């Protein structure tokens, strides 16, 4: 299938991407919070319960997997990629090896994983993946993010994307300006602008076909410790303005990360962006916690209650599906809680 068609399918109107690519260490923290043992059997059962829900067909265009998960066989007899494909969604895979301390820096990172990537991509394609993800992270602080961090991560993201397209898959390019800190919305706008500019400069240098990519950025939002609170309309206005000025129009889809926002905040902010979206971009979600937090709580209450786990997931997926069309309403959240 043509890469542009895959990218558009991942971000189709009313659909988005489920980020189920938590590393074993990250999911250990999530399971600990609900008193569930972090063993392979439990990880598989939680994920297959989500992947076999009705929301997968209606609201999910793609699923980002972790290395362990893409190799697993479900208790339903299908492999994980087969189960995802059965519901009409596209299986994808996180391929970076994580953020490591940037040489010459005390507090910034560069994402690693380019060594051996070409060979790993071939294996993932054979396992059923049709898109990939690579995340770079940037901190806002005094004089941060630095030019060194911005350039190093942009170069790695672009080299990754070129290898992925060579392997006939769609690269999700994820430059995340972190919410951690006391910075205001203007500082986030500036940092996000600088990061996106450098990323697209490098992607062009590496001859990446932008029509066969998906951008996974942060929203332009104040830091989690910022005292200057702004409303969802302001976040939407600043975010869309930043995208219009810094993302080339050839990019078919933009799938936001939730980045520390609550489930309802991430739905509300996405909805406000789509209400004023006057671009050609398909603007949607690529959420982990923003889709799974409620389902995870239900899993903690009773791991065998497939119905309650799927009900929680179906609701969140539906809310975000509506947000991707600018049709979400706060009253729908209250109706569900009633």
Structure, described:
- By secondary structure, the protein is an alpha/beta fold.
- It has a single domain, classed as TIM Barrel (Alpha-Beta Barrel), CATH 3.20.20.
- 49% of the residues lie in helices and 14% in strands.
- It has 14 helices and ten strands.
- An eight-stranded parallel barrel has the order 1-2-3-6-7-8-9-10, surrounded by seven helices.
- Helix 9 (185-205) links the parallel strand 7 (170-177) and strand 8 (214-215).
- Helix 8 (147-166) crosses helix 9 (185-205) and helix 11 (263-275) packs antiparallel against helix 12.
- The longest helix is centred in the middle third of the chain and has 21 residues, at 185-205.
- The chain is globular and about 50 Å long.
- The model has no long low-confidence stretch (mean pLDDT 97).
Please name the defining characteristics of this protein.
338 residues; TIM Barrel; 8-stranded parallel barrel; two-stranded antiparallel sheet; 14 helices; globular
For this structure, what is the CATH class?
Answer: Alpha Beta
Tell me roughly what share of residues is in helical segments. 40-55%
What fold name goes in the CATH topology slot? TIM Barrel
Instruction: Determine the mean pLDDT.
Output: 97
SS field, number of helical segments: 14
SSE order, as H and E? HEHHHEHHEEEHEHEHEHEHEHHH
In CATH terms, the superfamily is Aldolase class I
CATH architecture: Alpha-Beta Barrel
- Given as residue ranges, the uncertain stretches (5+ residues, pLDDT < 50) are none
Name the strands of the widest sheet in spatial order. 1-2-3-6-7-8-9-10
Largest sheet: 8 strands, parallel, barrel
Structurally, how many domains make up the residues?
Answer: 1
Question: Could you tell me the number of beta strands?
Answer: 10
Distance between the termini: 44 Å
The Cα radius of gyration reads: 19 Å
As an assembly, this protein is single chain
- Morphology: globular
Beta-strand percentage range: 5-15%
Structural category is: alpha/beta
């Amino acid at each position: 299938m043509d890469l542009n068609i895959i990218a558009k399918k991942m971000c189709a109107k009313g659909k988005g991407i489920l980020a189920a690519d938590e590393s074993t260490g990250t999911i250990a923290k999530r399971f600990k919070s609900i008193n569930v043992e972090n063993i392979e059997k439990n990880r598989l059962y939680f994920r297959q319960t989500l992947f076999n829900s009705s929301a997968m067909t209606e609201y999910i265009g793609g699923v980002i997997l972790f290395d362990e998960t893409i190799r697993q066989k479900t208790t339903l007899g299908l492999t994980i990629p087969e189960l995802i494909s059965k519901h009409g969604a596209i299986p994808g895979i996180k391929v970076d090896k994580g953020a490591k301390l940037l040489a010459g820096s005390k507090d910034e990172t560069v994402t690693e994983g380019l060594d051996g990537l070409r060979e790993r991509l071939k294996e993932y394609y054979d396992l059923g993946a049709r898109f990939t993800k690579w995340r770079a992270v940037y901190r806002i602080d005094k004089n941060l993010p630095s030019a060194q961090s911005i350039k190093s991560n942009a170069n790695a993201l672009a080299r990754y994307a070129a290898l992925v397209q060579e392997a006939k898959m769609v690269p999700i390019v994820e430059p995340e300006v972190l919410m951690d800190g006391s910075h205001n919305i203007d500082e986030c706008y500036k940092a996000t602008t600088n990061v996106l500019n450098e990323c697209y400069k490098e992607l062009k240098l590496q001859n990446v076909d932008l029509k066969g990519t998906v951008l996974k950025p942060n929203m332009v939002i104040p830091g989690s410790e910022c005292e200057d609170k702004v409303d969802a309309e302001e976040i939407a206005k600043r975010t869309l303005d930043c995208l219009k000025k810094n993302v080339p129009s050839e990019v078919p889809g933009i799938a936001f990360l939730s980045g520390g926002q609550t489930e309802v905040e991430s739905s509300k902010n996405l909805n406000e962006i789509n209400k004023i979206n006057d671009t050609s971009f398909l603007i949607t979600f690529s959420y982990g916690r923003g889709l799974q937090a409620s389902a995870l709580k239900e899993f903690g209450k009773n791991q065998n209650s497939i119905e309650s786990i799927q009900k929680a997931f179906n609701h969140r997926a539906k809310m975000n599906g509506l947000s991707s069309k600018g049709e979400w309403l706060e009253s729908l959240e209250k109706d569900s809680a009633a």
